[in-house]
Specification:
The structure holds 2 protein chains of 2 kinds.
Chain A: H1 13-34, E1 36-38, E2 44-46, H2 50-56, H3 59-89, H4 95-109, H5 112-122, H6 129-136, H7 147-175, H8 179-187, H9 192-220, H10 224-229, H11 241-251, H12 255-287
Antiparallel strand pairs in A: 1-2
Helix pairs in contact in A: 1-12, 2-12, 3-7, 3-9, 4-7, 7-9, 9-12, 11-12
Chain B: H1 29-49, E1 52-53, E2 56-57, H2 73-95, E3 101-102, E4 108-109, H3 111-132, H4 138-154
Helix pairs in contact in B: 1-2, 3-4
Classes of the chains: A mainly alpha, B mainly alpha.
Chain lengths: 290, 155
Amino acid sequence: MKPIDNRAWLLVLPVLVLVAFSAVVPLMTVVNYSVQDSFGSNEFFWNGIGWFDDLLHSERMWDALGRQILFSAIVLLIEVPLGILIALHMPRKGFWSSLCLVLMALPLLIPFNVVGTIWQIFGRVDIGLLGRAVAALGIDYNYTRDAIDAWVTIVVMDVWHWTSLIALLAYAGLRSIPQAYYQAAEIDQASRWAVFRFIELPKMRGVLVIAILLRFMDSFMIYTEPFVVTGGGPGNATTFLSIDLVKMALGQFDLGPAAAFSIMYFLVILLVSWAFYTVMTNLDREEGPR
Amino acid sequence: MSLDPHAPSGLIPPVDEHATAPIRRPRVAPLAATLAILMGGLLAFLLWAAPRTDEGISWGDPLIPGGWMAWTLATALFFWIIAALILLFLVLALRFPETPRKGVLGIETTRGDRLFITLLGSAFLNLAWLGLVDRAQWGALVLCLIFAAGVFRWA
């Protein structure tokens, strides 16, 4: 292997100035907030690591983190297999394939707050189609009162909104598999499962890693949709990390704790992104020269 | 056709590709000196500008009373250390171009990757110490240094 010549990075320096203003300095101010107490009007009092200490021992943050992880896990467990399944059954070419692609892309084009509003109304028992229909089946469904109902509504909404993304990415991965692989499998009389397990799945690995990364990040940062549908309720049942953070920072104007919270949130996201990035680049390197 | 073991084989002798001129190391001394002076000056300035009481430097008081964001010496030093580390590794990368290696983590890492892993891991170690151990926070720093040594040696 040749040593890496990193000198080209110096050419990025001008961008660094821009990034400094848009990201680095704001991030530095968050760090600065996190160690101080403020009552507004630019008056600050040193608090050291006090906020971090408080938060690490507060049930509120751990509960929000737990809900967030549970939500991301559920969403990924449903959307990834479902997306792959849909991709496998989409028409390969012709008019129907184009139609499918357009239809699948539609939910992705809708702004987050509109998705929230659609489902907020769709799920209402008094006027919403879904709410009325479920109630007519004799199920006691009310997402503003019952925590489970609220969770189901939000998960279904997210699945409706984002499964297409996984399906489209998986479809792109499938289309790039040369026909020769399928012919070889046919000659070997491979079962449908074997074709999926040993040809399609390995060939889709790259796009699936990206799809899972995207979905994880988006679901881990989700704010708008649950905020519009349930507002974090009933109680705190759907108060995810970002909702809690906004409540803390803007609702209560507790800038110090909110900043400490943001930093921990940021660290988790940084860790996960780094892990995914490392896995992806390592995969690329292994697959590259073949 | 007789085979004479001493006759020239007719083959071109293999060239030792590694036996070429030694790699030219770029000269980074001027850059390193400039950066050292800049960062050293900045540090000196920060320490000079820090507010003081009778008991010495007060770490948590604003560097500029009433100024924007009430930056304190402690926060400034935190960022100074990170900036200094990045610049140090910049100079090292220019002076000693390196080959990525595979360590205990099973991934290819360069020096910069190891620094990143160290810093990110240190953040989590500090939080874990704060949340789980009821001791002075500098204990976490010791732990981080051990972690850093491990990462740079084996990762």
